[in-house]
Model the fold of this input.
Amino acid sequence: MLDPAALRARLDSVRERIADAARRVGRDPTAIRLVAISKTFPIEYIRAAASAGQDDFGENKVQEALPKIEGAPDLPVTWHFIGHLQSNKARKAAQRFDIIHSIDSADLALRLDAAAAEANRTIKLLIQVDLAGEATKHGTPEESVPAILSAASACASARIVGLMLLPPAVDKPDAARPYFKALIALRDRLLAGGADPSTLGELSMGMSHDFEVAVEEGATMVRVGSAIFGARPVR
Done:
């Protein structure tokens, strides 16, 4: 059951933890964007978080997210898509989402660009990089990132703005640190190789269990769900 006061308290706590982590390494806390992962939660939870000042919300299934987005046209929020995006869902995603974190091929980027152009809107994209080679997770291997950047440079309505990482599940938050460092290193190699800095400004990494470590390592976006909304509803 929704308890708006408790939700606000959890949201404030996450914000404080982000700020503390940023200050520990000399970063400006305002440089980190908190994306509240609202998947599985009904629109009332999103409205409660928005009333507490939350601006960014993330969903991982197009079919679940669309009724929420269409049912909240009054909310001045940014919608992020964080799940694996099938090519046949690209058109709908481009029509409703503002930022898509899970680009894993040049073809998907081009499909989203065409769909965004058709809808007369612009969207931002992040390339999801698979640094662990896990068969159960999506993303593109790091050696394929330059090709995606190159192909996407021709896009007019969809723009690559950074990289996203989903590290392996770990028992201790600090165990995710090597993966965050590896994404930073990849970004730096791409920049050294001549990549457009505007395509690599964002680093989406860190979730409820490890977002403080991600902030310490340089995340510009953290994706936090249960630490804000509580335990996910049983389906």
